[in-house]
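Protocol step 4 of 5: obtain the predicted structure for the target chain.
Materials: sequence only (see below). No template structures provided, no constraints applied. The aim of this step is simply to have a reference model before the mutagenesis design in step 5. Sequence pasted as it appears in the construct record:
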Amino acid sequence: MNNIQEKLESVLEYVLKFIEKIKGYVEDIIEFFSALRDRIEGFLEYIEEKLAGFSSAIEDLKHHEIEAA
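Step 4 output (structure tokens):
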């Protein structure tokens, strides 16, 4: 009877350690994707700024073309 209890405790301890290890992996994955999201948002903001600059330059060229005509 005592041997069965020890084995059950051992299995339970193993399962608890396994769960803790998985929680660590899940936290690492969440952190990775959060950082990736932040980088993607920053890249999209950069692209948006560049497109706004191109749009402004195109409008200026159109305005100068109209004035020249």
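Step 4 remarks: The longest helix spans residues 2-68. Residues 22 and 28 are 10 Å apart (CA to CA).
Proceed to step 5.
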